[in-house]
Amino acid sequence: MSMSWKEIMKYAKIISYIARKYAGDPDLAEDVSQEVMVKLFEDKRLNTKKFDPAKKDAAIRQTIRNKVLKVLRSRNTGRWSVDSLDVLKESGFQIDTNGNIMRDPYYKKHPFDEEETAWRSKIDGG
Questions:
Q1: pLDDT < 70 stretches in the chain
Q2: Nearest to 21 by CA among 5, 10, 40, 36
């Protein structure tokens, strides 16, 4: 069961905002917004009735963000390439709602990060 059109229209402003944030171009954002709305409507696996009511809004926003990024990836366009977003996340950074890059407070260093840092300092003469 997909999202109803009525439910999608409740999130139209959020869809538009997220598309503008990641697209970096108003015309592209408009196209992406429309495509995301159609994709939400057509996605038969997306059943928002099964979402936890306390977390439903956040889950739908995350779903919208993922769909926007997927559309931009398919077009190979946008403010940031999706690959660079993945690299940022893997490095412990995230992008806030204003588009600023910030350190992710929940980032857990990989155990190999410390070993690599120690190894690199030995090579660099440190």
A1: 76-126
A2: 36
**Domain of 68?**
1-79
Q: Are 46 and 3 in contact (CB under 8 A)?
A: yes
Side chain identity at 29, as an amino acid letter? A
Q: How many structural domains compose the chain? A: 2
Beta bridge partners of 94: 102
Three-state SS string over 32-86 comes to: HHHHHHHHHHHCCCCCHHHCCCCCHHHHHHHHHHHHHHHHHHHHCCCCCCHHHHH
Distance separating alpha carbons of residues 115 and 111, to the nearest angstrom? 7
The 3-state DSSP class for residue 100 equals coil
Same domain, 94 and 42: no
Same domain, yes or no: 91 and 68: no
Q: Decide: pTM greater than 0.90.
A: no
Per-residue pLDDT of 112-122, as tens digits, reads 455 555 555 55
